[in-house]
Specification:
It is built from 6 helices and no strands. By secondary structure, it is mostly helical. It has one domain. The C terminus is likely disordered.
Length: 138
Amino acid sequence: MQLQLDEQLKARIAGVTFGMVTIHGVTVREGDERLWRQIEILSRRLAREFSLDRLSENQQIAAVRALQKSFGFDPTRYRPSSESLLRRILKGQELYQINTAVDVNNLCSLEFLLPMCSYDLRNVEGQASDICALTVTI
């Protein structure tokens, strides 16, 4: 599969890099104790490193918010997934344990402070460009 962005979109978001990984042979399970321990360890580290009142000062978070604004979204109303997850941690709220696919996605989103998404390509219809349009949705 190839990632293709519309030329108008490329011009609008100059300097932004998108990536896509296709993984085959994944078995999604209800949960995994080792994975959840990694999420808990990362959550504790993030809780020590960040505070709610200073999130907007973080370069990563500010960049994602600016990208959202460029598409006309209010990042305080429609928070990027990475920021929403981090805010839950900083408020002392538990993260939801969904399944191993979602949990790995959330772990990566928190580790890199970037909104990420996962799709089961067996359930995605359309051409590769349609799939990429889903990928760039924040």
